Amino acid sequence: MALSTEEVLAGLAELINDETGIATDSVQLDKSFTDDLDIDSISMMTIVVNAEDKFDVKIPDDEVKNLKTVGDAVDYIVKAQA
Amino acid sequence: MGPKKIVVTGIGATTPLAGTAQDSWQALLAGRSGARTMQHEWVTMYELPVTFAAEALVRPEEVLERVELKRLDPSSQFALIAAREAWADAGAPEVEPERLLVDWATGIGGVWTLLDAWDTLRDRGPRRVMPMTVPMIMPNSPAAAISMALGARAGARTVVSACASSTESLANAYDHLQQGLADVVIAGGSESCIHAVTVAAFSSMQALSKRNDDPARASRPYDTDRDGFVMGEGGAALVLETEEHAKARGAKIYAEIAGAGVTSDSYHITAPDPEGLGATRATRIALEQAGLAPGDIRHVNAHATSTGVGDIAEYKALRAIFGDHLDDIAVTATKSSTGHLLGGTGALEAIFTVLALHERTAPPTINLDNPDPEIDLDVVTSPRPLGDGDLAAVSNSFGFGGHNAVVAFKTV
């Protein structure tokens, strides 16, 4: 069952909070993973793998570098679920 | 210019007895044991021959932030807890980051992380092996975690010499302060490897006590019925600095670390030299460095793990060094209470030695019901006053690989 943008955002925010301690309400669509949220590449890969499990999608390693913002990741997951 | 005077200004520990250094000391004086039956399902699942251990009493989950728990192997978690306590106890010294050094030690490193990753790989495939795996396995991870947490930029060094590791880290810290590489050093060691694999492995080599029906009485150094050591875990940290630096900032001083000796047996990978020659040399070096004669030593915190051959080899070394004066030395084997913290054990016993001098009280050895007639020592079995005047003590650690490390402390 495909989730809405809001539902994916909320789920992703939980994963980010779990990995980094960043407050869930700081995780917004326009935020950059690196510049705004200060998430390093190791945490990013952990979040990606956990997101694959949580949302039952595949996010290839080559794709991860294109996911600059939270919105990029949410869009990718929403499309991959469809 | 002669050697600098190096002093201990902070202590911290999380141990099978308690979650802090002072609480561990009080539990030690009270004669408690940290050994308990393990409650993990893997103990029965694999029918392990040893079903108890001395696990840290306060779990890191009760102390650290969630993100720290996720990104640090338990061996680093214990390191961070102990180092933060020692740092706070030292009054969080103001020191240039470039003059603050970490000298840490572990016996094995991130064994939990390695074995968990292997389970994950087999169950769920390579994609699920977490990217933090490598930095969590590294034996230098605890030193790096402390360096990052406390802002130490003079270096974050790690020594690995099995059960001698964290006494050797104190020897290194002493040397590094003498060399002028730093003004303040956070030194110590940590270990967390009470895992089915390590319990099975130590048990296979007949190193562990199998007194499953009475864990609290299993670690019994010098007793005729000793049958091996009790695995422990935890971390212990000391803040060391030059006396000049400590006095300039008005720090409280527990004791002086006056010298250290490190040698190797070149004899056997696990068995100690039966005459304890390497241990004897390490003690001589430590005493010489400290400007102490054997007759100056009033207290020994022995390595004494409660194994048949180890306790005797150490006794022979002590007799060789101290001769008849050994009869006047208050010897204690605190592993009887704490179990064996492996890479963390030397630093913990150094803390107990420092507190013994500071409080002028030797802590007891428990479970000595039938002293081994081959070991003629004055073993402390209840807290014993060490008297007035200048006091000096040594703490011994020996490790698989033939490693011997001895540190000498004095009252200030």
TrEMBL record, chain A:
The protein's annotated pathway: Lipid metabolism; fatty acid biosynthesis
Processing after translation: 4'-phosphopantetheine is transferred from CoA to a specific serine of apo-ACP by AcpS. This modification is essential for activity because fatty acids are bound in thioester linkage to the sulfhydryl of the prosthetic group.
Keywords from the UniProt entry: Cytoplasm, Fatty acid biosynthesis, Fatty acid metabolism, Lipid biosynthesis, Lipid metabolism, Phosphopantetheine, Phosphoprotein
Location relative to the cell: Cytoplasm
Annotated SUPFAM superfamilies: ACP-like
Similarity annotation: Belongs to the acyl carrier protein (ACP) family.
Organism of origin: Gryllotalpicola daejeonensis
Main location: cytoplasm
Chain's role: Carrier of the growing fatty acid chain in fatty acid biosynthesis.
Residues bearing the modification O-(pantetheine 4'-phosphoryl)serine: 41
HAMAP family xrefs: Acyl_carrier (MF_01217)
Descriptive protein name: Acyl carrier protein
Domain EAL: 1-82
Keyword Phosphoprotein tagged: yes
Gene: acpP
Carrier domain boundaries: 3-81
A matching Pfam family: PP-binding
